[in-house]
Amino acid sequence: MKIQITKGHDIRIAGTPKREIVSIGKPEKVALKPIEFRGVKPKLLVKEKDTVKRGQPLFFDKQNPEVTFASPGSGTVSAVNFGPKRSIETIEISLDGDDAVEHEPVRFHAIPGLEREHVKSAIMKGGLWPLIKQRPFNGIADPGGNPKAIFISGFNSAPLAVDIDLALSEQSGPFQAGLNVLSTLTDGDVHLTVSEGSVSETMVNAERVRIHYVNGPHPAGNVGIQIHHIDPLNPGEIIWTVAAQSVVTLGTFFTSGEYDPSAVFSVGGPSINNPVHVNGIIGMNVGSLLKDRLTDGPARIISGDVLTGKEISPDGFMGYYDTTVSVIPDSDDREFLGLLRPGTSDTRYSLTNAFLSSNSDAFHFTNQTSGSKRPMVPIDAWEKVLPMDIYANALYRAILAEDFDEMEGLGLIECDEEDFALCSFSCPSKIDVGSVIRMGLDMMEKEG
Description:
It contains eleven helices and 20 strands. The protein is an alpha/beta fold. Among the domains are: 2-23 and 107-256, Rossmann fold (3-Layer(aba) Sandwich), CATH 3.40.50; 383-447, no CATH class. Helix 3 (172-183) packs across helix 6 (244-256) and helix 8 (392-400) crosses helix 11 (433-447). The two termini are 35 Å apart.
């Protein structure tokens, strides 16, 4: 099946990572951040100065004690940091050695014959269930749920994101093993989306999946957009999603009996020298990824892409689901004359080519929003970059009015804030549309 996405926009940001993977050695520290798992009430299983193995559970969800969260490294718990109301913000581990919790491995060809409950139990015992997420609401999947399908996005369209073709170039065995694992978890289809120009044998030759070729600008690579065009969500239905590199993690876990947190990260942005792809570990300290790569001057470091990521400090840690480090200049300078100031595409970025020149070169974005919030102007700016059959403006208003019937009728359950990130980027009123979508989803989930 071929899917052509016409709405959207590929942001031309400077610092695109080269198509090569470099090794930087073992990081000094890794961490899990319980606070980033939406809806999870964590209960610690370790304390400071404890020795832990790779794959050992660090905490579990009080609401579902079988869902544990595995340590991505072996060493000593160097810090447990708490936030307001004793919320657990980070569990830091200073790496030392490579001891791992061992589980019973499964032969590659035996995986498809495993019972569903056995597979679920094995994933939860390994602390890897959080790799599987669920729509609607985009939280950790309910182990007792019965998804009508499972989706894997095989390419990233977000700016500066990891090149999945490159990341999976030598992972055909583990990737197929992971697909075999996922195929046991649903009676429906496992969908794998691939960029139309992909030459990755790992993905185009994958078995036990339905392969879809997708073409178009960002957010074509977002799994929510793909679900919308392939198998839309209806009320009462659920769909599970898994990141492409997480499929490899699951496959490796079953065939080796150990949790391997390795992943390929992209490091890029206008404030990066020699942007590249890097071999790393989930939850690693960002300083190891940025060593000798930052340009001079203040910079904002983002765990994730520039549209949906979160700012972290230079001594912070990557998010559990993030494999992109974006770094942009941090500036508080205000432009003289603002929008009245003449310019070219070298100095001003426009989605509509409103300035002179071709507007095709990579642009050196900063953290500036080029304006403050202002009255809402409904000029279809959101709709031009949202490739979903959803009235974004009406949905936004329904959420602010807390009209649950209207929210559901307008298709909120199909949405996630990442799918509306370009709406925020293009909004002439500087409205953070994605945060309002998340507010609506949280209200609807709480309402039940």
